[in-house]
From TrEMBL:
Gene3D superfamilies: Homeodomain-like. Residues 53-100 form the HTH araC/xylS-type domain. This is HTH araC/xylS-type domain-containing protein. InterPro entries: Homeodomain-like_sf, HTH_AraC, HTH_AraC-typ_CS. It comes from the Bacteria. Keywords: DNA-binding, Transcription, Transcription regulation.
Amino acid sequence: MHGDDIRRRLAIMLGDRGKSLIQSLDERFVREDRHLAVCRPVDINSVRQDVNRLDAARLLLARSVSLKSVAAQVGLFPTLRLSESFERRFGVAPRLFREMHAGL
């Protein structure tokens, strides 16, 4: 399976949240020549955390969902764990993220 095929399949499986994940995975590939790509090991836990944070961002845009509920739904409970993880990924607190994107 070629890299483009893998990217396409991930995009289909993960939808919009997969774009960031695919970009992150692309950065882990080292191209030695145009036919050979050597992949560094990917930590499945970091991929899972990235997906959880992307899910959290999507849920935060739904203003009717509380921060506590978002944390529980994405498996980053209590809310302090969600806040720390979210800030590491996006550089802002979840509440500020929600306020910044309130008009969308």
